[in-house]
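User: My advisor, Dr. K., asked me to get a structural model of this assembly before our group meeting. I'm new to this, so sorry if the format is off. These are the inputs:
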Amino acid sequence: MRVSGEIAIAPAVVAAEGESPFRRLVADFCESRLAVVGLVLFAAVAAVAILAPLVSPQNPYDLRQLNLLEGKQPPGSPSMAGFRFWLGSDDQGRDILSGIFYGLRISLGVGILSALIAFGIGILAGLTAAYFGGLLDSLIMRVVDIQLSFPAILIALILLAVLGQGVDKIIVALVTVQWAYYARTVRSSALVERHKEYVEAAHCLALSRGRILFRHLLPNCLPPVIVVVTVQVAHAIALEATLSFLGIGLPITSPSLGLLIANGFRYLLSGTYWISFFPGIALLIAIVAINLVGDQLRDVLNPRLQK
Amino acid sequence: MTVFLIRRLLQSVAVLFVMSLIVFAGVYAIGNPVDILISPEADQGERERAIRALGLDLPLHQQYLVFLRKAVTGNLGESFVFSEPALGLILKRMPATLELALAAMVLAVVVGIPLGMWTGLYPGAPSSRTIMVGSILGFSLPTFWVGLMLIMVFAVMLGWLPSTGRGQTGTVLGVTSSIFTVDGLRHLVLPAFNLALFRIALIIRLTRAGVRETLLQDFVKYARAKGLRERRVIFVHVLKNILIPVLTVLGLELGGVIAFAVVTETIFAWPGMGKLLVDSFNHLDRPVIVAYLLLMVCMFIAINFLVDALYSVLDPRVRIVTRGT
Amino acid sequence: MLCHTTSALLAVLAILAVAFPIAAQDEITIALGADVTSADPHYHNLSPNNNLAAHIFDRLVHQDERQGLIPGLALSWRTIDDTTWEFHLRQGVRFHDGNPFDAQDIVATLKRAPNVPNSPSSFGLYTKAIKEVIVVDPYTVRLKTATPHALLPNDLSSIYVISRKAESASTADFNTGKATIGTGPFKLAEFVLKEKIVLTRNDNYWGPKPEWRRVTFKLITNDSARVAALLAGDVQMIENVSTPDIERLKANKDFALFSAVSNRVIYLHLDSNRDQPPFVTDKAGKPLAKNPLKDVRVRRAMSKAINRPAIVERIMSGAAIPAGQLLPEGFFGVSPNLKADAFDPAGARKLLAEAGYPDGFRVTLHSPNDRYVNDEQIAQAVAQMLTQAGIDTRVEAMPSAPFFTRATKLEFSLMLVGWGSGTGETSSPLRSLLATFDKDKGTGAANRGRYSNPKMDALVEQALVTVDDQKRAKLLAEASEVAMNDVGIIPLHYQVSFWGARKGLTYLPRADEYTLAHLVQKSKGN
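Assistant: The format is fine. Below is the predicted structure of the whole assembly, which you can bring to the meeting.
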């Protein structure tokens, strides 16, 4: 998905004497209170998602725990099993709060997993293209260009129509949509780094190609890519939600936040707004948190903004 | 230059070919449209008649060959559902989508660039902070959610604007569009804003980043030292320099806007191509799906080609590099 | 510059915020919920298409709001012998172009209806019983059938009569309006695919004059958008009010709701035929020795485990009636002795134990997610209830396209499906859903569980050739009893259709779910 034309292509963090670059990065990052808030929010969201079975009052996917007659209860109503529907219940009698926790799991899981896999594939492709050059470079970049010229949603639509439904298929679609962007970013970085002295030095030392690529070249290409990762995770989550809304996303057996919103959509205008509204807020918080973090990272890592 | 052109052309044809193969086979694999189209009360004989009528009794590769043969003459098949030429169906609905997409882009530029410049020039001001937070929201909110919120607030609760559909169209200089009538404009506002929100946020951030970077550049310091008025510095020198990357991104985004209109069209019942596509997916109306995707591919290839050409014309650095190779 | 832009923007918005125009008193805009694929009445046997056709064309035989047969272009009909029907046609009827209607138009219609090229769902279904068409005089027509065919008038109530001039017209000609000349209450003014249809009143209509000089149908397939359009005043009436909005409209004094039970039953189809059906295992996932669904006690247990009133109240918001057979009370061929199973989880568990499954078993319920009202939600509720009775149920919902493809290939063992009886009598579902699958006879075409009961088959076969209405109704009721006592399928509920309209309008709601503008009237005293 296209985000911006900005690419930082130099070792990004200028460290002060005697201070590790990482320390410097953290200090710069914390200069923005908003970004710190974002990080805290994200940590909270991630924690809740991981610990979902422990913190949820109800397992919304265990059909034995549900009762149809408790459907569409407003927020705060008591349930027959003893706990409270803090955010209300949906039409099947599922606790919305529990649904959000489990849904976050799937949304975050799908978003992060697909971003990481795309990250891996993209780095491999980008590094290979930059390092080996020539025909391989042309070939890879041709594929990347062609793919980047298609909007993400179109690619996802086609792939999902062909593959069908399922968590694995959504991840395949999201990975396919994202990898090209990582590849291009890494390649630009690597092209510049390739000519620097430390790579020459490594060559002279007759280190293996693999070692050069992964121990020396890669770490210096990472800063811009990290920014891309944060933004892409947010986009992956939003894209999955949109696909679920259009009806071709995840199956109902593994409802992500997007699917929860889509299912509750019909109720928004008719009074039982909580079924769609609260998962929407949860999705919003997750995405905004990630974007806040990504924003500040980009500002901090952008060498052209160094004073 | 001609080598570039020919290579691009060949690649485009290859991409078209591969795309059509993938989609053709893929849609075939999902299911048989006959099962959804025929009356449930039909018996087995009727089902077989329908299969023959739609040409689905031939083996897949033969169906594809039939398609290819017709495609070369410009006939991309007839819709299974509507009995009208697939390409005609899409082209009839294209103006509505293009209108929506262009309106969204115009909104994005008209709203986004000024706001972005403001936040870039006065990054510490509280108004800038609010705009930035707003841009993050605009970036993160899923389009479909915003769409329904807009309908709920502006159409149902306040009653200011209509909730669905396209308004009346007017014709000026041979171009028919709903921007030429007040009714048409009223129907256009909400969907265009819904579609534009994401791009507005994007442009605000891009412009802001561009302004902040450019302000630190030497030529700006030099211009100020020369004694030029601040206004001239900003609007002539800074703006020109940030416009190029912003506009190229916009150009590339145009394709994305057209594709993403699918969601907006579904919510606002806007009679465009995107809605036709989603409905065709649900009906397995393969000729329409294939025709739509091929059309989109052609359009993107054309847009990208134009942008690349424009870029090489506008940006002298690129020209110098290509001259050297 | 920023200030100027903002104030300009505000000014534009202010100008735009004008009150919307008030529609003229004899014009009405109605929002439809499903796409009309063509204005050609013989192209596609699809409800929305037939709905539109009913405005522009007439049929020989019409259906009233309960799907009872009433005279249309035919004043009366009778059988002369077992295979010959005689129809007396209405005189003095004119087409929209002024030409008079007579028997030759019927001949042309019956020739064209089954032969439209590229038809995805042909009307040949309704004409194939007709062997010969004889014109006795300009206002009398005789139809000969190959074998005794009791449902001929029902079949004819689905075929729209076109002018003989349009006999060789193409579907495109109808879409542009060139051939769309009928005898109906409205003329076609504009047809824009997937967007809107405009009709104008036929002032020379033979029937009651419609109140509306101009009718605009807007096609809004998204449920929420359709309701929003009604609430915002963009349309004056909508069909298919979605269940979450029914309560809301009921409470709103500016709007009125009209409802009628429809001919659509939502049911569970089970594989009662194969020994090793897919997706049926024991609770550990291992295959079972035999197919539990073959045992009528297991099927009855499943039916008892389902709390139909809860589904009706919670999932359907009251827009349904619990079902015990294939059509609701009052329809043709319904048995007065069949009631919906009461919710009895204890009884269900007892029956399961009796049948040899005290610990239950595991099954997957497949359902479409975009075909019937709340289909996916109903499936989830049913799964919940079956699980609590001991049968672990997983739900897999998918779009109609793959669902019907796979279901027809018999890839499922338990599925949620719906059936709308277009003819308004139980012969339709009995023949297609429950009769033994026989390609040559054309029976059991939708029998995806391959249920087979020879006793029921014989009753249905006899009914289909019994012209006497009373006798046929009795046979059909008996066949229904045989099938339901054997739990051939598990009926869940009948759908209730809701129409919403601005206060001041009334509509006589219909069982066939059609929205007919000529039956929309301004209520008295407004």
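One thing worth pointing out at the meeting: Chain B has 13 helices and two strands.

User: Perfect, thanks a lot.
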